[in-house]
Amino acid sequence: MQEKFKKDQLLYDILTKEYIHNLIYGDFYRTKLFKERFKEYEIAIETNYVITVMYDDFWKICKNRDNQFRYNVKRKLLEDVRKIITDYKTISTTLTGTDKIIIFLECENNSIEEDFATSEKIAKDILKGLKKYMTNSVSIAISNFCNNNIDIMKGYQESFSLLENIFTKGKGKILRPNEEKISINYDYKSLLDKSIHSLLVKIGFKDIDESENIIDNLLAQMTYKDMNSDYIKSSIIRLIVEVISYFNRENKDQQFSIIYIQSIEKIVSANTIDDIEKSLKEFVNIIISNLSTKSEKKIALENTISYINKYYGKEITLDEISLVAGYSKSHFSRMFKKYMGINFSKYLIDVRLENAAKLIKNSDEGIVDISNEVGFNDYSYFSKIFKEHYKMSPKNYRENN
């Protein structure tokens, strides 16, 4: 920021937040409304990249803290980042109600390669520079190149969404769209759905630390959003049901039923959020302990089968399923074919067809809708392979049943 604005820091911050929020949320009318004031404070830069910086473990650090504490933590992060990026043409602000700050970067527009390198360098400078100011890490997401205001709005959504991939990529990393070859982040309906998905994968890896981090973040955000005790308890009970259903391999292990009942009783009788946290972590540790008695290959195979049976309605790629198993694509493909007798893609299709047949037989839902629901985006393809599998069309199958 220019020297002449330092004496009016508060106004600068207000205008910067206004300008950035106008663009990322598509309120271009308000951008025009304050156009002259934005120019006066040199805020209206030609944004080429939207960079979102997320404070890792923010919700864990701010657990049981008030809004003032959270604001101060995030404000300090913003100020530290601004010190680091003074050599770049940027504007930056905090994102209200989140663990993130956002930066607009203007490049010299020399070439695509040079501008890309500039955006990469600023992110690396931030990661390196913050080590002087804080002990915790941050994760950084960079959008694709922006040419106009519409691109800025898309770029914000892009960078914000990318940060959901720290689960698979790890904390303290730089994430870019062109590096994203594996994506297991679906269009979840809620924070709880995201947490369940993440927890299932991490428990499958027997990763206690990351499993507990997911629990910490989930409960911290529930607390921050002032969810009442009944809602929190019912949500955690649903999570326990999902985990038991996922890891109780075809109902063969009766011990899971005992774990399930005991865990539900503890959640129902919990008096505080700390009681829920303790009970949920105990539950996860018991599940992981039970998995530890099995061989790695057996766990990997069972994890993939459970994953397919739960998420067959979504797009599941070989990249993704091998990631869930913890093997390379080639090793996973060989292992799956050896133990299942068919390859992964054929197994996935069979699971989808079986579930489609159940819905066609037992519901009044439209057949086209059912094909989409079980993971087939192309109805003609669905109809073709359904007929090959069941020797009749989906429509005839419904009529005959």
TrEMBL record:
Superkingdom, natural source: Bacteria
Keywords: DNA-binding, Transcription, Transcription regulation
Keyword flag Transcription regulation: yes
InterPro entries: HTH_AraC, HTH_AraC-typ_CS
Domain HTH araC/xylS-type: 302-400
PANTHER family per UniProt: ARAC-FAMILY TRANSCRIPTIONAL REGULATOR
Protein name in the entry: AraC family transcriptional regulator
